[in-house]
Amino acid sequence: MKITLDKKTITVPEGSTVGSVLDTEVVLLAELNNGFSDVDAHLAEGDVLETYDASTREGYVIYKQTLIHVLSRAVKKLFPKRRLCVRQSVNKSTYFEILPQVESCEENAAKLYEAMAQIIKAGEKCEMQGKYYMCASNTAAVAVFDVIAYDGGFLLRYPNRYSGGKIPPVQESLRLHKILVSNREWNEKVAVGSVSELNEAIRKGTIKDVINLAEGLAEKRIIQIADEIASRRDVRIVLVAGPSGSGKTSFSSRLRMHLRINGIKTELISMDNYFKDARTLFDGDGKRDFESVEALDYELLSRHLSELIRGEEIQMPIFDFVNARRSSETIPMKVAREEIIIMEGIHALNEKTTLLVEKGNKYKVYCGAFSSIAFDDENIISATDVRLIRRLVRDAAFRNADADYTFELWEDVRESEYTNIFPFENEADDVFNSALVYELAAMKHSAQALLSRVSKESPYHLTALRLLRLLSFFEPMDTVPIPPTSVVREFIGGSTIID
Q1: Regions of the chain where pLDDT drops below 50
Q2: Of 233, 205, 219, which Cα lies nearest the Cα of 363?
Q3: What are the respective helix, strand and coil percentages of the chain, to the nearest 5?
């Protein structure tokens, strides 16, 4: 019988299964007739089969989840009386602990690696359809990995979509890691630490307390950052960077308010006004590229910032996004000695944009949305998925865009993050985590409506199905109690602090 495999027609024996026609040591996910497929599913005449490896969006997700599954098996084998606790992503890896804490993490990292390698070499099977996430059917498909000791625990390391099948090098990120640990511990002690606890709060009607506590923590962190900036007499520019959907705009507005409470006036500069003429912005594939730092006239931007600090007046350019070029008009701008400039943008931490500004005059903040809630000890919620759902909801609310539009943009956004944002996150003086434990419940209805309209023929159909599955575990909640200053309002609407 004839089937279509990865857009090519092939002939296979009758009674063939999905697994019998695939190399399961490479293929992580099989899509049969626009739906997830188990390797044991039988094929029929005319079936359409698509496969995904680690270089694909959904393949990467399954690669990581399968490694966590293998890790769980190894921990049970080596430490049968201890508990595996998978924490947040850090350093493009997954941080985990074994509790009670094991001694000599370096030695045990090597033992864990060897135990996992044995499981993978044996090609042990695992259930594709887990309770929360899917795994590869064959553990042999996740052979490239590493385990290293890290800050009292371990990092599970693996390739990403943009590392050419290799594990990217470790970067220093202890400051970011410790802030995330602190945030998680606070949630577990004071608010909610798991999806089941959140759902219980929604059902019992105590969700308002969760909202107030979560928002209170966020406000406390912003106040701390504002107070730190106010204590540094030489700071003239606050630079706010972070990936798409991280809540940079809301954070910057709230920070500005708390600086005013400290008696400090602020001026905002939009980095977007320093884009070059779009006719000059093309990547290697001939597409216009607004993501690269080279899309900015960073030499002019750096000079203008230096001149403003010296008390000089500048003529700030205006970028005309309709015509994708710089306007002939400019905005005269001058700041007083006691004022602070706030500049937000994805390249704000890149030294090229502020090269002429003295280090002591700059205060850098990295804004992220590091998910602070999990299903259980071994099933965390991806921060990337949280940001993507934020973007889906916001694009629909403010750009009248469907999910396919956001998914298409997201491909370029994610690639750019690995080049233009993540390498600079450790340059920050402080980190703000904008994730809120209740936000997926708040966005559930809007996101589900968008995702359910993604057609089976869409190249993003599987991503939509996976996100729908993620959201299905959350109880929906009333959004009325969410304060108008919340970062969630930046995405669902009703914010009083941003335009």
Answers
A1: none
A2: 233
A3: 40, 20, 35
